[in-house]
Amino acid sequence: MSKRRSAPPASSAGNAPQEGLVVGSHGRHCVVETADGHRRICHPRGKKSQAVVGDRVLWLAPPPGQGEEGTIEKVLERRNLLYRRDEIRTKMFAANIDQVLILIAAEPVFSESQLARALIAAEDAHIQPIIALNKSDLEEPFFDAWMRLSAYRAIQDEDGSDHYPVIPLNLTSDDPDQREALMDLFAGKSTLVLGPSGSGKSTLINLLVPGANVATNEISQALNSGKHTTTTTTWYWMDEARSTALIDSPGFQEFGLYHIAPTDLPRCMPDIGAKAQECKFYNCTHLHEPGCAVMAEVDNEGSPHHIDANRYRIYSELFEELSQSPWR
Ligand SMILES: Nc1nc2c(ncn2[C@@H]2O[C@H](COP(=O)(O)OP(=O)(O)OP(=O)(O)O)[C@@H](O)[C@H]2O)c(=O)[nH]1
Ligand SMILES: [Zn+2]
């Protein structure tokens, strides 16, 4: 238990690699937090040690007199990894996370395709998604946006429980009940916050993480003095005990899913997947086959398994898109 805590401080550790947590990612450079909470910039030793935020790594301090920046020797095995992939590249968001909060807002109007894509990527990575709709104080646009989410609120698991938690928020209010509900939602977990620009990600972090701005500025300054690029993804502890974390990551736009096979889409879209076993043909693509139980539910308004027409459109467009993947 206490093995990591009792590791000697970096300066006297000689050449023994120590375990650390990646709490910042800036292109190829990382910020690694040691067991005692100290943070330092580390560079990957080679391609194989390319780490992302949330990774547990073995890192090595520099030899005496050679500055503060360490090297990442090894990335330890990941429990999960959330990423996206387009024609040319893969972007890794974070590893070893418990849940992903997809933060959208009444304004700017959210893209349902982007939301669906983020949910699919989370399902594929076996990470629990939560949908939060912010800016409930903007009554009319909020109402419209909430209605646009009705298909997501209606998706149920076999036992009748809601598959996706969908929560309304007003992050500019200082309502203590909302704050407590958020604390409960995040307690003891690491939660990646994803969302389009302007949805309120920084507002959320500043509300729940005291001193978040200061911490970010300190790291940016350290990185700038070493001529590194600016922060991209950051891990924030919400508590002194370092058991609850929020991870802020940009890059919600252009959410490519080229790593997912089109035939895996029903597994990652639970409303479609619920019916996919009942089609006449075992290898039904749900696009044109006779006896397709999925297509039947699109027209079946009022059914408890009704598949929303927009969801079905997103499914068929994605099926087409992923069939063109240059990665396969
Ligand atoms: N009316 C209203 N405005 C909000 C609410 N939450 C956040 N905002 C405002 O929305 C704007 C965008 O919020 P940010 O927290 O900067 O959004 P972000 O997601 O971090 O945006 P990027 O940094 O561009 O990715 C700010 O002006 C916030 O004050 C809310 O509940 N209601
Ligand atoms: Zn079918």
Automatic annotation (TrEMBL):
Biological process GO annotation list?
ribosomal small subunit biogenesis
- List, alphabetically, the SUPFAM superfamilies matched: Nucleic acid-binding proteins, P-loop containing nucleoside triphosphate hydrolases
Q: Origin, by domain of life?
A: Bacteria
Question: Where mainly located?
Answer: cytoplasm
Keyword NAD set for record: no
What are the residue boundaries of the EngC GTPase domain, all occurrences included?
95-253
Question: Any idea which positions bind GTP?
Answer: N134, K135, S136, D137, G195, P196, S197, G198, S199, G200, K201, S202, T203
Q: What class of enzyme is it?
A: hydrolase
Compartments where found = Cytoplasm
Query: Which GO cellular component terms, listed alphabetically, does the Swiss-Prot or TrEMBL entry include?
Result: cytoplasm
Tell me the cofactor note.
Binds 1 zinc ion per subunit.
Return the annotated region ranges for Disordered: 1-21
Establish whether keyword Lipoprotein is in the entry.
no
Indicate which residues the UniProt annotation says bind Zn(2+).
C279, C284, H286, C292
Return the InterPro entries for the record: G_CP_dom (IPR030378), NA-bd_OB-fold (IPR012340), P-loop_NTPase (IPR027417), Ribosome_biogen_GTPase_RsgA (IPR004881), RsgA_GTPase_dom (IPR010914), RsgA_N (IPR031944)
| Compositional bias of kind Low complexity | 7-17
What keywords does the record list, in alphabetical order?
A: Cytoplasm, GTP-binding, Hydrolase, Metal-binding, Nucleotide-binding, Ribosome biogenesis, RNA-binding, rRNA-binding, Zinc
Q: Which Pfam families does the UniProt entry name for this protein?
A: RsgA_GTPase (PF03193)
PROSITE patterns per the record?
Answer: ENGC_GTPASE, G_CP
Named from the GO MF annotations, one term is:
metal ion binding
Query: What is its quaternary makeup?
Result: Monomer. Associates with 30S ribosomal subunit, binds 16S rRNA.
Member of which family? Belongs to the TRAFAC class YlqF/YawG GTPase family. RsgA subfamily.
**Role description:** One of several proteins that assist in the late maturation steps of the functional core of the 30S ribosomal subunit. Helps release RbfA from mature subunits. May play a role in the assembly of ribosomal proteins into the subunit. Circularly permuted GTPase that catalyzes slow GTP hydrolysis, GTPase activity is stimulated by the 30S ribosomal subunit.
Q: What is this protein called?
A: Small ribosomal subunit biogenesis GTPase RsgA
Q: From what organism does this protein derive?
A: Comamonas terrigena
